[in-house]
């Protein structure tokens, strides 16, 4: 297990993470620290704890909105998949119908050819 140090709101925190996850955790901490810094610029010094709570709520709000968007996109993908399957089924039915019509036309042509051949033999 790796140990790293991150700085959030001017304070260093020692954290543990899985080996290989160090850069990811450092990046997440920097992003969260950026949220706190944005709030500090907007609201001034309103207390470290309050800024941290507000940043946490802001991040969770963003996460919630992204989760909603993901659900909508998943529904759109499912609808598109269903429409694709319906179109493929329709295509398969259409192809089968065309094949049946071609077979019927070929059968009729063969019948006509046989009839013509017979009538030429009879003459």
TrEMBL record:
- Matching Pfam families, A to Z? ZapA
Record's GO cellular component terms: cell division site; cell septum; cytosol
Report the main location listed first in the record: cytoplasm
- Look up keyword Cytoplasm and say if it applies: yes
Biological processes, Gene Ontology terms: division septum assembly; FtsZ-dependent cytokinesis; septin ring assembly
Its biological purpose is as follows: Activator of cell division through the inhibition of FtsZ GTPase activity, therefore promoting FtsZ assembly into bundles of protofilaments necessary for the formation of the division Z ring. It is recruited early at mid-cell but it is not essential for cell division.
User: Subunit details for this protein?
Assistant: Homodimer. Interacts with FtsZ.
Protein name, entry field: Cell division protein ZapA
The species this protein was found in = Pannonibacter tanglangensis
